[in-house]
Each structure stands twice: as structure tokens, then as C-alpha cells.
Amino acid sequence: MAGTYTEIVEILAPESAVAGSAVNIAVAIRNTWSATIHVYCVAVLNSESRFIDWLDAWVNPGQTLYFNGSFVMPNNDARIDAVSYWEDTDGYVHSDDSMSKDVNLAAVPTVPAVSEFSIADYSQV
What we know:
Strand content: over 45%
Oligomer: single chain
Distance between the termini: 65 Å
Radius of gyration: 21 Å
Low-confidence stretches: none
Largest sheet: 5 strands, mixed
Number of helices: 0
Helix content: under 10%
Structural class: mainly beta
């Protein structure tokens, strides 16, 4: 459900990531109001690490902007919580919409053991 002035349309993030890898995300925020407004975006990882920290832009009516950020995947599943804010004419900033998305911890790809390799005999070809 959209807020009063903004709507978080989507959080673009992978479904899973390997621990220690960089995870790039984008939060798409649409201005649902009839005038240009000053919009802010905050995104937090697992309720503790803010990795999009008050990015802001002036957004035209009906326009959708993407606010980008990244984090290092922890050694467990991750939850992204994004919040959109708008600035009132008196300068106060108000929260408006929110959305969450999970990024699951992916297994580390296994490297074949030396015993799994074999030497092909091409002399028979």
C-alpha cells in the first residue's frame, strides 16, 4: 500500500548471495502526489546497518527514481527494510511508505577435489 505522497514500487535485489559478497540493491520510489516533492530513501540491513542513508532527490509527479546502495552479505539470511520520506514545506521530513525484501544466504560453490579429475586418453580418437 502506498503512502500519502510516495510509493515504494520495488526493491531490486538478488534472491540469494554468498556470504562476503557485495550485494547491490535499488529502491524504486514513485511520487504519487500532483506536484514535485523532495523525497528521501533509507534502507537498513537486518534492522541494524543503514546502507542507504538519507539519499534524496526532487521527484516530479508520477516519476519513479531508483535509490542505489550495497552491502556485504552476512553469514546468514538478510532482510532489507526500506522507507521513503517526503519533506514538507516547513522543512520537516515525514516517513511515508515502507517495504521489505529478504536475501537468502547462498551456499558457497564447491570446488572439485583433485580426485574428481581424470585424464582423457585422446590417443584412441
